[in-house]
Design goal:
The chain is of the alpha+beta class. The chain has 4 helices and 5 strands, in the order ααββααβββ. A 5-stranded mixed beta sheet has the order 1-2-5-4-3.
Length: 147
């Protein structure tokens, strides 16, 4: 049984037979969210993309800050440059999570980042995440143990 059919079995009766998201074929809404997430992440904050302001905040956990300023500079650059999205690390095709590796104190150190799509008050999830007028992004950079 396919994963999609398996997921459909657990849907409420009213939703059975409706079109389900298949990450192999992202829809226009998903592609719009992914493109906006990429622009926000590459700018490391509020930016204008295709004439629309993509607004939000960037947060860094204390454990990342404790690694020092050079680590912070290296990890933020790695987050900006990240483009290795796969079905495993981006199952919904929204480009909202990634893991990067940087050198630190002679070792390779992993860090991860996530983008949450909040409402204009940063209180709840956005009702319309593909609309930058109704959505504020929160990019959080952390160590894996912070997740």
């Amino acid at each position: 049984m396919s994963l999609i059919k398996s997921a459909e079995r657990s849907l409420p009766p009213a939703m059975k037979g409706t079109t389900m998201f298949d990450p192999r074929f992202p829809d226009e809404r998903t592609e719009r969210i992914a493109t906006q997430n990429d622009a926000f992440r590459r700018a490391l904050g509020t930016t204008v993309f295709k004439g629309e302001e993509i607004d939000g905040r960037v947060l860094v956990t204390r454990s990342v800050l404790a690694m020092g300023s050079q680590f912070l500079a290296d990890v933020t650059q790695a987050v900006k440059d990240f483009d290795t999205f796969t079905d495993d690390n981006d199952p919904m095709a929204e480009h909202d999570f990634g893991i990067v590796e940087v050198s630190h104190a002679g070792l390779r150190q992993k860090a991860c980042w996530t983008i949450d799509l909040d409402d204009e008050d940063f209180a709840l999830g956005s009702a319309c995440p593909e609309d930058p007028r109704q959505t504020r992004r929160v990019l959080t950079i952390m160590l894996p143990e912070d997740y």
